[in-house]
Structures are given as structure tokens and as C-alpha cells.
Amino acid sequence: MGALKKLAQQTAVYGVSSILQRFITFLIFPYISRVASPTEYGVYVELLTYTALLNIILTYGLETGFFRFANQFNPDKVFSTSLMSIIATSISFFSLFFVFRHDIAESLDYNEYLSYLFLVVIVIILDAFLAIPYAKLRFQEKALRFSMIKLLNVVVMVAFTMFFISGCPFLIEKWGWKFLEVIYNPDFLVGYVLLAYVVASFISLLLLIPEIFSVKFNFDFSIWKKLMLFSLPILVSQLAGFLPDSVDKLMLKHLDTSGDPLVQLGDYGANLKFASMVIIAVQMFRYAAEPFFFAAAKNSNAKLVYADIIKYVSIFGVLIFVGISFNMPILKYIVGADFRDSLNVVDIVIFGYVMYALFYSLSAWYKVSDNTHLAIIFTGVGALVTIVGNYFIIPLFGYTGSAWIRVLTYSVMVLLSYGFSLHYYKMPIQLLRIAMYFSIGLFLVFIASNLSFDSVVKELLLKNSIIIMFVLFIAWNENILQMVKKRFQ
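The chain above was modelled as a monomer; its predicted structure follows.
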């Protein structure tokens, strides 16, 4: 029981910290959307997407590899071998970038943004290097220290972003701090965001110095070979998981011919970021539910429990979808004025994320039945659908097509996961009931989108009255009121 209690406590610490990180990162979005133009935001979206992709490649699964072999061999040897491997590949990566920096900038059409690329490379290298010390903290079960450093990293990034972009001009103009003119350039907005990432990562590096230098550095080639054999397949699975959610942003700039590609990418990125509040909800569910998945697996009615979870995730997702869609007349003010008129695919993107939440809730079956290798098939097919679908649809429909491909991708992944579950771990999922809730939600959003109102207040009153009736219908249909009543008797 002591071990289970400790696991639950650590899960809570990691979970709360991760959710707070995402929430704080989301809060910077309203600010950036007010100070950046769609073009600048497009550059920001593209560079951060490349940063995420290259971070996966440059850590090449070694974080997971460290966990795997730290229990089998001397943890200090595994740590130093992993860290030295990443240092070597990072030096090679930087050398290649430096030699071909002008070719890379030209291929990305970033000749005027070469300094941005340097900052991106620094962020990637720092984050790749930090991955192993972070893994060491988790291995040593120092959940609070890990979480606090991660949280501080996000807070520092947000604080320095606002300082560089708004604080510097304010201090120069109002307080006469002319010395800040050395670092302030109003045309360097995206560069300041990237510089804030560099500062945050560097501070994290300083805080992790005790973990880094607490071991004697030596490279064990035999351990490194085992690490590579184990970690490289992890890299493949991580790339497969990354592509369905991100590759459309990288393809859009090169395939969209409907206007300025960076403006289109900026508008699409704003839609995605706006809809990411659903991902925060999914992550909350993930940290709450994952320990429960494995605990419930021992029960005789585990399959029924998982089926109920899938149903309630579906209900929760549909209500979020309808709720955000119906309240867009007021929620759109979260973003800056330059982006409000382009929030035309938020409904589609949110529905795609709801399908992702459903896919994640379905993942319980292959986790508890030791069939996690099948996840590579699901995400791999999803990546293929994303790449092929976007290649053909972006030239025709721009980022609206990309939003629909997201829905298609996650729907295919859901169907695949459900289909395989029928063979490996059949659950009594109430398909008709789930389909009914989805159908009602889609119907309500479709009807509402074709209505016109002469007052925002009237529109919100009517739409939210409909949401309340929908919630009451679900509560009645699921006997939720009776269950609550019994619980308090």
C-alpha cells in the first residue's frame, strides 16, 4: 500500500505540474496574438513545430532508454553514457547546421530570419541535453524538484517574452532606460520569444547542475549499444505520434496557394492554439485515469469499467465541443483582433481533438493487455493519412482542408483501435449511445452555425439554454441524478 500511495502522490505532482505548464503556455497565446501580426505568428508556429520535431530526433528515445537500463546497470554509467551520446550528436547537429545554415535558411525561405534559426538550434540542443537530467530526477523519484524546475522554465519563458516585447519599450519610453535600446528591436518579435525559450532553458540547465555533475563521466560502449537498440524504435514511435498533430503545419506553408503562406499558417496556428484548451482537458483526464487503468485491470468487471470511461469521455468531449462552439461570440475575444475573423475552423479542430480524446480513452485496452506495440500501427496509419491527405487537400482548400484531415486522421485511429480491441480485449462499449450523443452535438452545432441573431446577448442566452437542456437530457438518459442521489443516501 505504501508503494501505491507513493505512486499516487508522484502522479498527482507530475500531473498538476504538467497541466499548469500547459495552462500557463496557453495564457501567453492571448498576449502574443495581440502583439504579433498573422505573418509573425506564422513564423512563430513554424519554428516551434520544427523545434518539437528536431527535439524528438535529437533525443532519439534515450530518455526512455535511460529508464529501461538504469535499473539493470549502474545508473551513473547509464546516465553519463546517455548524456555523452546526446552531447556528441548535438555537436554534430550544430556543426551541420552551421555549415549549411544559408542553404537551410533559403530552403525555408528564411534568409532574413537566419538569427531566428540560430536561436531555434540553441533551444533544441539545450532541451535535448536537459532530457537526461530530467529523466534522472524522475528515476530518483524526485517528483517535486522535477515539477518545480519544469514549471519555473515555463514561467521564465512567459516572463521574458513579455519583458522583451512589452517591458523594454515601456522602460525606454516611460522611464528613460536608454541602455535597453542595445537589446530592443521592434522588428525582432519572434526572435524575442525564441530568446525567452533560450533564457528559460539556460536557467533550467543551471538548476540541474547538481544532477549533471554528481557522477563521474565515462562512456560505456556496451551500454550505449543496448541503449541504441532499445531507444531507436522508441524514436520511430514518437515520430509517428508527432506527425498526425503537427506535420500539417509544416506542409501548409509549401502547399497553400490561396494567399501569403505565413499568414495562412499564422491563422491556422491561432485556430489550433485556441482549440488546445481541449488538450488541457485531455491531459487532466490522462493523469487522473492512467493509474486507474492499471488498478482497475485486476477487477473482474474491468472491461465494463473501461467501456464506461469511454462513454463518459465521449459525453465530456461532445459537451466541450458544443459549449465552445456556442460561446464563440464571446470566447473569440481571447485572441487578438487580427485573428478573430480567421477563427473559422475552430469547431472542426475541436471536434478533431475530441476524437483524439476518444482515441486516448480507448488506449486503456492495449496498455492493460500488454499490446502497446499496436499503438505504433495506429499512430503510423494516422501519420500516413495526415501526410497523404494534406498533400492533396491543402492546394484545394488551404488550412480548412487541414482541419478536416485532422478529424479524419483521429477518426481512423479510433476505428483502428476499436477494431483491434474486438480481437484482443473486447469491451461492452455502448456504441449506439455514444453515436447518439455525437450526432446530437453535431446537429446542434450545424443548426446554430446557420442561424443569425440581432444581439449577442440573445444568441448566448438561447445557445446556453440549449446546452443546459442537452446536459439535462444526458443526465436523464444516463440516470446520473439517481446515481448521485444514491451516493449521498
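The two ends are 29 Å apart (CA to CA).
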